[in-house]
Amino acid sequence: MPSVILFDDPSVRTQLLPFTFTRPVAGIRCGILTVAEKWGRWLETTPSYLTQGYLQPLYPQAISDAFLYINGCLCPNQELVRAMVDLPLGAVLRSARDRSILAVHTSSATWDPSTDTVPLTEYIFADEYISIHNLWDIYIENGAQIAADYMLLTAHRQSAPITDPFTKCYFPENIFVEEGATIRAAILNAEDGPIYIGRHATVSEGAIIQGPFAMGEGSVVAQGAKVRPNTTLGPYCKVGGEINNSVLFGYSNKAHDGYLGNSVLGEWCNLGANTNNSNLKNDYSDVKLYSYTTRALENTGKIFCGLFMGDYTKAGISTMFNTGTVVGVNVNVFGAGFQPKHIPSFSWGGQAEGFATYRFDKAVTVIRETMRRRQVDFDEEKETMLRAVFEESSKFRIGSSSME
């Protein structure tokens, strides 16, 4: 089989900022797995990446005699995988939906999705598929992707038993527990979708969880937490309070009381105690969201839309985020009142106090200490990547969109 390369569609990559500041498009988590992890399991290989130059050292591209370039925003299904595998050398697979490139099979190690000049035989894919094009797609598609990943991960496997006599399970045949997980005096309701509990994860006393739900290795649901459907915790997350239809990529905390709904948090984020976000406007009108493409608020066409927070960002206690708020990478936000609808990367401050640029050296010191507490290294390659994000995001730090 050719080397599988997951490429960033340039327009999609911009639409998925701030998350794609620090990862390829295929590094986004939706369901239990990231998009790259899904393709790896479906194709029984380890994919590599074609992404931004400053990200490439962390996400290298494989060298081979033949390459299957797959659009990194695509979530695999059986029909899509079959079409990829059957695509002949020297061919491009396009979507019948919008003519976008789904895959390219070529011997060229330098194929560039932004130019698309290599002459290729065209094939059209007319079946249905799920793709992550917009920020809100991550949480909207999350429930269906939890179900799909659940089938992929648990097929022909036996769940570890739930032995705690004080835990109540509804539809237990739809619950899968990996070895080493701990569950105490919880309510797990999988009647409306599966519940997946990863290795060495902890569900604490009094937690109430409704499926579809997934939690990765080492994650913790705190005492008395209320977790509503279509929610994913990546590895090593901690959540408490109330959370609904939200995705935490990994190593992020919402450990205290407060509400998080229809939202996405990147990695290494932290929400202080009593942090809340709005996900529905009082007049039930469509939510407008900051777009990195137009640098303005754009209509999402959705009435439920919450908070989108880039990697390494922290919010102080009792921070309030308005309906449809986008916060960039490595922001420290705090203070009274609703925060702006867009807070650019490397900002420090709040709506009432005003914002200043977060000094890069100070930011790196905090990140290094945060990761050290989890026994994870912040190495030179990651610092170089983050410096590139600091420089690239400077054009967005000119000002913030006002609260709608």
CATH topology of the largest domain: UDP N-Acetylglucosamine Acyltransferase, domain 1
- State the name of the first-level CATH class of the largest domain: Mainly Beta
Mean pLDDT, as a whole number? 95
The overall number of domains is: 3
- Main sheet: strands, sense, barrel: 9 strands, parallel
What does this structure look like?
There is one protein chain. By secondary structure, this protein is of the alpha/beta class. 17% of the residues lie in helices and 28% in strands. A nine-stranded parallel beta sheet has the order 10-13-16-19-22-25-30-33-35. The protein starts with a strand and ends in a 12-residue tail after the last helix.
Describe the protein's topology.
Blueprint: E1 3-7, H1 10-15, H2 35-43, E2 48-50, E3 67-71, E4 74-75, H3 78-86, E5 91-95, E6 101-106, E7 121-125, E8 130-131, H4 135-140, H5 142-154, E9 168-170, E10 175-177, E11 182-183, E12 187-189, E13 195-197, E14 202-203, E15 208-210, E16 213-215, E17 220-221, E18 226-227, E19 231-233, E20 238-239, E21 242-244, E22 247-250, E23 253-254, E24 259-261, E25 264-267, E26 270-271, E27 276-277, E28 288-291, E29 296-299, E30 307-309, E31 314-315, E32 320-321, E33 325-327, E34 332-333, E35 342-343, E36 347-350, E37 354-357, H6 360-372, H7 380-392
Parallel strand pairs: 1-2, 1-3, 5-7, 9-12, 10-13, 11-14, 12-15, 13-16, 14-17, 15-18, 16-19, 17-20, 18-21, 19-22, 20-23, 21-24, 22-25, 25-30, 26-31, 27-32, 30-33, 31-34, 33-35, 34-36
Antiparallel strand pairs: 3-6, 4-8, 5-6, 28-29, 36-37
